[in-house]
Write a structure and sequence with these properties.
The complex is a heterodimer of chains A (about 325) and B (about 80). Chain A is of the alpha+beta class. Chain A contains four helices and 20 strands. Chain A folds into two domains: about 1-170, Jelly Rolls, CATH 2.60.120; about 180-315, Beta Barrel (Cyclophilin), CATH 2.40.100.10. The relative contact order of chain A is 0.18. In chain B, strands 1-8-6-3 form a four-stranded antiparallel sheet, with no helix packed on it. Chain B has a four-stranded antiparallel sheet with strand order 5-4-2-7, with no helix packed on it. Classes of the chains: A alpha+beta (about 325), B mainly beta (about 80). Chain B: Pathway: Lipid metabolism; fatty acid biosynthesis.
Chain lengths: ~325, ~80
């Protein structure tokens, strides 16, 4: 009664809503980088919304099911196949014992979420089944999946979702190859020279190929210049250094002014780089679906707009629950 | 004689050599087997090898060492 990993894919890991409440102790939230798609896949199956799923990045895994169950895949476009036969995404699919599931490489988006009925059953660590690979914490043995791993399913939902039920198109997120992301400027935006602070929002940046769950590194824009200053006690000599501070998830730092880094859910919790802005929580899913070399532009918003965007995001989730409840 | 296009399956950075100071995996015009590694794509700090997929002669590369590559983009041509 398990799922066997034949091929692990590029970077497949168990994720859920995340490990919230420990970031101040240095343990990041982790969890599905695209929370909307992760929740949609679970809701399709009638699972608890935050049941553990597999986050499949660019190149999905090949899995053999030694258990009959239902599955649903949301997020990036990665053509799923059961026993070699193409299957639709955003839809409840039926798996028979002995079936093999694999995926074609991502045609759009970066991360697909594979939910199984009952969720992936693993011991929780600090209240979450999410994998934090850098800390060898949570998930399947604290790491990405490897060939030969055996995954166990949790108890299936009492009412099985009808096979073929699908996510309405209006509730599917688009996966653009370039996008504008909203940010709240600060806390150290005042450290930029005014011309850099302006130009940062005018240029398109592209996602570098090193980008991962820890952070998205951006290139292609003009290097940013910081205000000259005498380094205060405890700060590094580079003008982009500050006295160590906590890093919010979504915060953007620019070491030496060269390549901005957006911190994501596996990020370090603090350090000595000035954060010039923070991606608003409502737009973090969008960042995580950008592939290497795709384009990103930043738009500054104020706190009220950021909170409004968060409300809209919550309303979208509510719509998902109503459509699939 | 037929011409085959070798496509990238992943986006990232394309390299023609296993490390910055190593010789290229293959030179244009060389004979290759289906399993011959002709390049690699770096994504998320991992290097994923690209094989020729066909045995024959590697006619040309369509990307330079260090170029950005999109999934589906043609990397090289092989004639067999």
């Amino acid at each position: 009664m398990h799922i066997k990993v034949i091929k692990p894919g590029l970077a497949t890991s168990v994720q859920d809503a995340g490990r919230n409440g420990y970031y101040h102790l240095g343990i990041p939230p982790s969890g599905a980088l695209d929370q909307y798609s992760f929740r949609a896949a679970n809701l399709l199956l009638g699972n608890a919304e935050t049941a553990a799923v597999l986050e499949c990045t660019l190149l999905g895994p090949q899995l053999q099911f030694n258990v009959a169950c239902q599955i649903a895949i949301c997020g990036a476009t990665m053509q799923p196949r059961i026993n070699g036969q193409p299957q639709p995404a955003h839809q409840v699919l039926s798996i028979a014992t002995g079936d093999t599931l694999d995926f074609l490489p991502a045609a759009a988006g970066m991360r697909a979420y594979l939910a199984v009925s009952g969720g992936i059953d693993l011991a929780e660590v600090l209240g979450s089944r999410s994998t934090y690979a850098l800390g060898s914490l949570g998930g399947y043995q604290g790491r990405r999946l490897q060939a030969g791993d055996m995954l166990t399913l949790g108890a299936a939902p009492s009412t099985a979702a009808p096979v073929g039920r699908s996510l309405p198109t209006a509730l599917q997120r688009s996966l653009p190859s370039k996008t504008t992301v909203r940010v709240l400027p600060g806390l150290y935006a005042h450290r930029l020279r005014p011309e850099s602070a302006t130009r940062f929002y005018q240029e398109q940046w592209s996602v570098s190929s090193e980008s991962d769950r820890t952070g998205y590194r951006l290139k292609g824009g003009t290097p940013l210049q910081f205000q000259p200053r005498e380094a205060p006690f405890g700060a590094g000599a580079d003008p982009s250094n500050i006295v160590d501070a906590g890093y919010p998830i979504g915060s953007i730092q620019v070491p030496a002014g060269k390549e901005p880094i957006i911190l994501l859910r596996d990020a370090v919790s603090g350090g000595g780089y000035a954060m010039i802005a923070t991606v608003i929580s409502a737009d973090l899913d969008v960042v995580a679906q950008l592939q290497p070399n795709q384009g990103i532009t930043f738009a500054a918003v104020d706190m009220q707009q950021a909170l409004q965007a968060r409300q809209h995001y919550q309303a979208d989730l509510q719509q998902l629950r109503q459509a699939l409840g | 004689m037929s011409e085959h296009l070798i496509h990238a399956t992943l986006p990232g950075t394309f390299y023609r050599r296993p490390s910055p100071d190593a010789a290229p995996y293959v030179a244009e015009g060389s004979q290759v087997e289906a399993a011959t590694v002709i390049g690699c794509i770096e994504v998320m700090k991992q290097f994923n090898e690209i094989t020729a997929e066909h045995s024959g002669r590697l006619l040309s590369f369509l990307l330079e060492d260090g170029d950005a590559v999109e999934a589906g983009q043609v990397v090289a041509k092989v004639v067999s």
